[in-house]
Amino acid sequence: MTRTEDTGDLAADQVVVRLAGVRKEFGEAVALDGVSLEIRAGEAVAVMGPSGCGKSTLLNMIAGLDRPTTGSVTVLGEDLGALDETGLALFRRRRIGMVFQFFNLIDDLPALDNVALAAQLTGTPARQARRRALELLDELGIADRRNAYPAVLSGGERQRVAVARALMNRPALLLADEPTGALDSQAGEQVMDLLIDLNQIGQTLLLVTHDRRLAARCASRLVEFSDGRVARESALERTQ
After folding, report:
1. In CATH, which of 3.30.1360.10, 3.40.50.300, 2.130.10.120, 3.40.50.80 is domain 15-235?
2. What is the pLDDT of residues 114-126, one digit of tens each?
3. pTM of the model
4. Do 206 and 45 contact (CB within 8 A), yes or no?
């Protein structure tokens, strides 16, 4: 993949995400229990663990979709706890890209407009947004599907549209929640290859997954969760 945009002009080894003593309670349930974690620029980190261990809550904290009960979350030098809801929404749109298991595309918009909308929401003129959206769809190999609606796209095509949308605003951090979970094996392989390509050109990635093969192929570090805590961390050698 050849891309001309930057990924946030981050210095090598800069801390992109820092969680310090993060605890999250939902009533009497504890989803995160004193989590401290750092992710540096250019890393591809996979988070794994059983259902209910806190993986999705962690992702929501980093995305500013939820707030910790105690502790702090700093992303790209911004203390998310100091931002109000409007500030969080703007920060998320401008600095963070998100890819979901079930794509979250807008059914009544064609692929091109699904992608372009992400930039238009930050104030980019429609013509400029559509031009960049088409460039991204072309780089991801699906420009010929730009006028197709999500209902007629394959799972792999929908996930590529979702990745293009996540990249529209040149995010410094890309978050992916089970990005291959709803795909067949061939489409899953294609998305894995795409994530690897993105990381190789400098994109910082955080992947939440149940799939050890996805982690082994796409990540350079594995963080394993258990009962809302970091149970262990380990370096990974990528497999082919």
Report:
1. 3.40.50.300
2. 999 999 988 999 9
3. 0.89
4. yes
